[in-house]
Structures are given as structure tokens and as C-alpha cells.
Amino acid sequence: MLVIRADSERKQELIGMALSRVVPSSCLIYLTGDLGAGKTTLARGFLRGLGHAGSVKSPTYTLIEPYEIGNRRCYHLDLYRLADPDEIEFLGLLDMLQDDAIMLVEWPEQGQGALPEPDLLIRIRYLEDGRELVIEAETDSGARLMEKLALELDAVVKS
């Protein structure tokens, strides 16, 4: 488990960028936290770290925002508005999981029971002076990723 403090929105984006540098081309990442905790901020940093130059908006209303960045495919999902986990099938999420793609999933608890175990679980919590990110590996692939991520984050934490 890694626990990181982000005292600014920029630092949270830098954490996302660090994550993007070590993630393989196929990875499932869950982002949890209260409304406004910064899940989309982290996703924005991640996508910019992959090389996306455009805007990154929360997929709250579209549910899924696909990104083709170089030779990589990334899906940013927000499941907040799902009424039932069975809706996952209608979104085509299970098909997307078969792709060689990175998936950033906000509000995964809304799809509980219909979603597979993530490689990484990132919980974002409010602090008085910023945010705390708790990153945990949930799979063997995630555990290997955590080792690389710890090295990348060392520079971000010191900045």
C-alpha cells in the first residue's frame, strides 16, 4: 500500500502523470472518494501523462470517455449515475475489458458485483490542507505495478 499526500490540484495531477509512466497497456484502475475529492483531477493528470493534450472532462453524463493516445487506448468511466450494476453489460464495459486498454473507473462501487477486481484501487480522501491518496494492489499485476509506481512517486512527493 502507498499513502501519498497531495497539497494541491497540481500535485494530484503529477501523481496521475507518475502513474501513467508505469501502467502497462492493459490495466484496470478504480478511483474512489467523495464528490469533489479529485478523481477526475487524477485522471486528467494520468491522461496528460500519456500525451493527451486536449481537455479532460468528467464522464458523469456520458458515462464513458474514450481516448486514443498514440498506440494506447484508454477509457475513463464514471459510474455514479448507474442505477443497477447490471447496466454494466449495456455499456459494453465487459467488451472493453477484453481490449488491450487502460480503464480508469470512477465510482466503481456502483457496479459492484458486475465488475472484475481492479489491478489498482486508489482511494482519495479529503484532508484539511489537501488530499490523501491510498493506492493498493488488488492483483499480481497490480503488485508489480506498485513497485514501479513507488519509485516514480518518490520524485513527486519530494517536489
TrEMBL record:
InterPro entries in UniProt: P-loop_NTPase, T6A_TsaE
GO molecular function terms attached to this record: ATP binding; metal ion binding; transferase activity
UniProt keyword terms in alphabetical order: ATP-binding, Cytoplasm, Magnesium, Metal-binding, Nucleotide-binding, Transferase, tRNA processing
Entry's localization field: Cytoplasm
A single BP term in Gene Ontology: tRNA threonylcarbamoyladenosine modification
Gene Ontology CC: one annotated term: cytoplasm
Pfam families in the record: TsaE
Protein transport found in the keyword field: no
Family, per entry: Belongs to the TsaE family.
Protein name, entry field: tRNA threonylcarbamoyladenosine biosynthesis protein TsaE
Organism from which the protein derives: Sedimenticola selenatireducens
